[in-house]
Queue: 2 jobs
Job 1
Amino acid sequence: MKKDIKLSRIHCAGCAENLEDKIREVDGVLSASVDFVSKVASVEVENKGAKEIIGSVEKAITKFDSSIKIVDTSEEEKEARREKVKKIVDLAFMCACVIFALVAYFLPQSMFWLKAVLFVVAYFLVAYDVLYVAAKNIFHGKVLDENFLMSVATIGALALQEWIEAIAVMFLYNIGEMLEEAAVSKSRKRIKSLLSIKAEFANLVENGEERQVELSTVKVGDIIRIKPGEKVPLDCEIIEGNSSFNTSAITGESKEFFGTVGSQILSGYINGEGVVLCKVVSSEKDSTASKIIELVESATKTKAKTEKFISKFAKWYTPIVVGIAVLLAVIPPIFGASFMVWLYRALTFLVVSCPCALVISVPLSYFAGLGAAARNGVLIKGTGFIEKLANVRKVIFDKTGTLTNGNFEVTKVFATDKSSEDEVLELIAYAESFSNHRIAKSIVKKYAKTINTAWVSGYTELAGMGVEAELFGEKCVVGNAELLKKHNIQFDEVDDGFTTIYLAKNGEYMGYCLIEDTLKEDSKEAIKLLKDLGIKNVCMFTGDNESVAKKVAGELGLDGYYASLLPDGKVQKLADIKQKNENIAFVGDGINDAPVLASVDVGISMGGVGSDIAIEASDVVLMTDQPRKVADAISVARKTHKIVIENISFIVIVKAVVLVLSALGLSGMWLAIFADVGLAMLAILNSLRAMLFKKKDGKVKDK
Ligand code: ADP
Ligand code: MG
């Protein structure tokens, strides 16, 4: 059983990774993932005794860090109010702290004791919360907790009579926490609002009456009315009226979609001027808008390598810094240096010992990148794929349905003297009547007469080859040259750059039809854009024959092509051409290429026309069926990845500098805490840049 547990206030040192480990240790937990950005712990537990196990998980979470609370969705509002009150109290305490500290500061040295007492009171006014959490966490055996380290550092400073220092560190630490919390929750909201594609209500029409209802109450088959300017609430079909729709929230394209009676419209479209009456075709749960939101939200559950590395790094960083701090306090005094001086330096180390900035900014950047991609019509199913996409060196396209429209036109029907053209077309159409392949659909459409499927029996489809069936009681084979060769049928192979569908009846060759596909409008541009991104190798896999492949590859300027590949052959070929440590992306529509989509480093599928299997098997979904979007996907990924690397290097360098300065006695606690808080803020701001991705309007100029 799966369950999402909503958490409040994950503090940075309560790092997601450590918490994950703790949850996994609970008996009966199969997997766990903690998402810092959406503040959710997702766990999968054994079905038997699931309730008890989840109870233990919740206990483990609060035991791990007592500052984390589990939020009951029904109490979310109450919790938010409580947090607000607490914030106001904290602010009041901080003001009081400043007053106490100022009075103490101006008291003459002769009143030492009063001075000391006032300083200590001021200190407790800002530090009480941190001290409390630290104490509680120690009871739970969590020693290297940032609250604890801050407490040790500042109590140490008090003992050294560095009053102002101790108070200032706690003061700034609190302010930093508040700012961080505010910045993160603001950005969380901003990123989510990118995805505010879901309507709040639907206008349900029942018995001629219309009323506003919640989406969850609308059933498939219900009738709803969509008025001008409203969001389409659920995927539906227009049954009355017409209007133009802005599709950009779903597809990232600003092109208008004009819907009339019979058109399918997707949830998330925005209605233009007209009023339309629609029949609902999917419930709230299965609607496009919900699926997109769910995909993006759960995408943070599978983590990027860099993200995992940072969590590991964070795990080691604190103990190492604390270890060095201990050495600093102990070793120099052994050799006669001043204990006071080195103790102070050691305490400064503790102040910088939290990897907060890293732990917050890295997942935030990835999440921002996911949001930006989604807004551009590219759904990325996990932050790990952002990283892989950013490093893609080779892109392989499927041909039919991906680079071409897959709307085949029958351009020629040929019959041998054993048959007639009409019979050839008829038998081929009958053979294809059960197939979902684009070729099949186009031929059936061309045939245009009703097909009596009672005359079709023993139907088998051979992926990437064609079909075998008994038609009107006679054994027929319909498909490509490979298929006829497999049956040892004598025939003359046609080789003129068109897809050829051969027909054989009772082992005898009867004729063929030539079908022609059109290239997608932006296929050429897609390849040009990829080249502009520095991708050296863009090629094509197809199950179609050599001469068609050659023609298409030539027209599009591809670097290479591999023809006559069966679905397994595509997987095999992929393994053959893949070089070590090279990331390959495969773009397909899921018809006869789901196995490659699933096995390649980054499987990219066409979401609009692609089959559900393709969307399931792929890692990235393009909402519009435009190959051009592959370049967009890679660009967003690269930008996001770059920001992550920038943040990591910047933070690590500044931290290292502050540590060295502290060890040399050149930086006080002041500077240390300032650097720490400032760093986190800068990193957060930088992360948000990932959200700002704008797709290129890469029109290809014909030379
Ligand atoms: P691609 O790899 O270009 O997307 P497919 O693997 O879907 O192409 O199909 C490869 C070839 O197999 C087609 O060009 C066609 O010759 C043949 N084929 C596949 N399915 C059918 C079918 N249902 N009827 C006839 N031929 C088919
Ligand atoms: Mg295909």
Job 2
Amino acid sequence: MVKRENRNKKGLVIVIAAIAATGGLLFGFDTGVISGAIPFLQDFFELTDSQVENLTALGLIGAVFGALVAGPITDYLGRRKVILASAFIFATGALWTGFAPTVTQLMISRFYLGLAIGASSFAVPLYISEISPTKIRGTLVSMFQLLITVGILAAYLSDTAIADNNNLECWRPMLWVGVVPALILFIGMFFLPETPRWLMSKGKEEESRKILNKIESPEFVEDSILAMKSDIAIDSSQANWKEIFKPWLRNALIIAVGIMFFQQFVGINTVIYYSPKIFLAAGFQGAEAAIAASVIVGVVNVLFTILSLFMIDRLGRRKLYFIGLSGIAIALVCMGLGFMLPGAGKWFLVISMLVYIAFFAISLGPLGWLIITEVFPTKVRGIGSSIGSLSNWGFNTLVVWTFYKMASAIGSAKDVVVPEGSDLSDICPSCIGSVFWIFAAVAVVGLVWGYFFIPETKGVSLEKIEAHWKAGKKPKDL
Ligand code: BGC
């Protein structure tokens, strides 16, 4: 009887996590959808290349801003309300961008949508992390990353289905599609509870117990309440920006910013961005190369993220980090070689890239979003994970922005003439190869950094992680 009840509770937590993880679908969808829409809206509004760049950048800047502003609000008003507000912005933003009558409105509405992407990108994993039983916390939070990858693929497939060369306004319905997952998130979150940990940190013990009774096995409920209570008794300080920079939280901060640094500086988004060119080099034709790249890369990304769900609470965070990052480093060296040596074979390049995506999908992808929600104490978990999230968006922008500059700088050092206003296809392949080697070097540095800083949080309650920092202990000794 008790066993069946526990199974039902586990089922309920999985459903709660799955609904909240729809936030990941929106993250993936809204970052991915714009690339298919750009060629059409560029013609429709007669945009210059730099206007298109501004449009993309505004979405990213909105995300940085959204993460920054929503951090303290998640600690103050709660995790659930911030996700609800993001869902509202996602829905209205999808309508607004799709209906935008002028370029200016399109830009402002992309920024507006960016706010929701930034806020939900940490509030959703944070919510899932705080509502999950310790044993399956990693798996449940990784569902967020899974839905990011599903969102990227869904955006691509829906853009392809809607694209119509005879209708310059087909970018509008492409953007409207985002309303559907936004409504699912909004309606779903409306019925979901606040997290017991946040409620407890606000002194709402009875409410917290009520929710714990629904999601935890009875034998753990009082223990959880006691652990949360003792935390709050020790830590009666106010949640604020000053608190997060105190010495005892220094390691947590280094971990959150550091993992996002390595997640972005191994070049994930440039590899995804560059994949159509790699398929082109392998002999696929123009549009065919772009389709093959998006579908094959997207599917490999989804499949290996599914695999990570089964590994993250079994193998643990550290092992996955080292396995993943070693694979990423080797794959990047191979990709560099593929570009440097034309004789290496084009399929060698394609396979190296897919291996790279697979290793990213089992490690840095899910680990980044999971670890930023695990390392901070309840009081400042909102602010803390928002710093992780805004680092992610900041580094993302920086890498994409410098990729082209790095490759063309290497080109000019090698005396390769890169015409003004040209795109990456004009840059010498060996220059691109060199940039991938730079990313490989970053991955190696990440391995050393990870040895000292990646904590093994598998099976450790959030309260124990907090106690570990309070005792002044090192991340690798957790
Ligand atoms: C990263 C994104 C990336 C995506 C790819 C996420 O974890 O934060 O920048 O595009 O994974 O799957």
